[in-house]
Amino acid sequence: MEKLSFRLTAPNRAGGTRAQAIVGVVASGNLEVLLERASPADICTIDIATAAHGFGAVWDAVVRDFVARRSAGGLRISINDGGARPDTVALRLAQGIRKIEEPER
Amino acid sequence: MTAVTANTVSLSWYEASARQRIDALVDAGSFTEFIGPELREMSPHLAIFDLPEQFDDGVVIGRGRLDGAPVLIAAQEGRFMGGAFGEVHGAKLTGLLRAARAQHQDVLILFDTGGVRLQEANAGELAIAEIMRAVVEARRDGLSVVGLIGGRAGCYGGGSLIGGTCSRLIVSEQGRISVSGPEVIETNRGIEEFDSRDRALVWRTMGGKHRFLIGGADMFVDDEALAFRKAAIDALKVGRRCDVTVLEAEQTRLERRLQRFGEAEDAVEIWQALGVDNPTDVPALPTSAFLRAADNRENADDAR
Amino acid sequence: MTLDDILAGLFPTGSKIETTGAIIAGQAVLPDGRPIHVLGITQGQPLGVDEAILLAGHVIEIVKSGDRAPILFLVDSASQRMSKRDELLGLSEYLSHLAKTLLLAEAEGHRTVGLLYGGSAAGAFIATALATGTLVALPGAHPAVMDLPSMGRVTKLPIDVLKAKAEATPVFAPGLDNMTQTGGIHAIWDADAPLAPRLAAVMQRPKGQDDRDRLGAKRGGRRKAAEIADRVVALAATSYQGAQHG
Questions:
Q1: Shortest Cα distance, chain B CAs vs residue C79, angstroms
Q2: Which domain holds residue B77?
Q3: How many domains does chain A have?
Q4: What integer is the mean pLDDT of B73-82?
Q5: Are B5 and B94 in contact (CB under 8 A)?
Q6: Which chains have 3+ CB pairs within 8 A of B?
Q7: Which of B125, B216, B274, B297 has the most C-beta neighbours closer than 10 Å?
């Protein structure tokens, strides 16, 4: 396993009130993303454990783009990765944001 | 009490994740998870094999309401390590079954498993034995333990043995139930014994329709979350103890199955012996037509 | 140790055991004069639908007799029978049924003791030895979930690598010591000591409590299972009270 950690300044604060959300599954070419409201409102932390070694630069690009474009401020994001492609990672991150913004029942 | 509502969106049970299945099964918004992913109770053993972990170790457990009644629920995630039983995964289920007895609540187990997780095989094997014991103890206290089978990974290995201890089993066509998987039989006994790549053979030997016809499952439903929900509500209405009367009836039922079908070479022969018209058509029949054709099936009422 | 040696050692006053293929069934007398039922699967044979239904039938007859005498279940088996016929006929139901009858017998007052004296694996192990109230083993017994070469094929790891990993943890590799450390086997009997007193000691154990996960934690082979299961039981109790008052 390769572990990567990012602490990024987030221009947009995550919406909604849910304390946490989880999307995806750890399988070949797939990943799970756990989102928790834990960081200061202008910070997003992302911790990754990945089965695919040596892709730090790709992760760096994907998560920076995600934090810049989506509302991820105030989130602590944890990822278990089974070797997903960058587009799958971006999709799951977006799904995670949508899920934590869903109204609570 | 708030009105009981299900999530009515059409959802394939086979395609859905463990969490989606629970959400679609229980009354809307009623699920509370025990030891959720935020607690990060992951397998302590996968790292030895440099394999990725999952925050819930591939099983979601908790309490919800089904048509207003409180139930304990476990759902395996068949896409993570094939839904296999490891130490943490298994202990979550063991704890849930023990809690059923302590709280006197029925249990739903949404199976989706290839059996024991080999990377922690001894812990997984013992978990299966502990869960089976806890299921029987819960049933002896008069509780229902209902198994729902229709996921990607099917219900194989030790999972199928736990299934056999349940008071009732709900199955879809996709729900395969078997101890040894097709590949295991082929590897051990040769392709002449079982060709694991012959998907039609796999489905008619281990699939939900065959299991329902021989009494290996009690209710047959469409691959739809709502159909599983309705069946689960009905299944919980039937009390089923696990006493000497029930097990003697099961003994008679399973002996009769060997007498009736013990010489059969293929599932189609069994379906023919059951009086199914055009038995070779069974795999292609839609649910309503299949249920009509299954009129003379063997059932396991009061004998499981 | 052969089956005959074991039976002679356990029951010096003799036993009446019938053999049907790999299945044995009969009665013996304990040194204190009390009767004990003896069942078993022997000769390292697989457990299929035919053997399972035969054994389960014996257990049900014992329960119906109402004598509440203990049951000793001897195990030297292979795994479940891996065949098209057995799966076609619903092997999982037969194995579960056998396990259920053993659990029923225990709940109805028959102490159940498993004695693993040879091999056993996978579904056969779960349906027999692991369905007894107390499982003991003789030295040289070799329980397994799957043998290491097959495990190597499935995990795509060379056998040498698997062997090296097995040195570091008892959690996955086959073998008596590993199964004992994870709590599956209560005790390994000393082969050189007389067997009858060992069985008599097992007969004094408290009944009806599944303490295998606790044993596994104590012995260090399964550190998490008991703690996780306990936490779930506690959480279910708390959330239920919350639901009642909320």
A1: 10
A2: 18-241
A3: 1
A4: 98
A5: no
A6: A, C
A7: B125
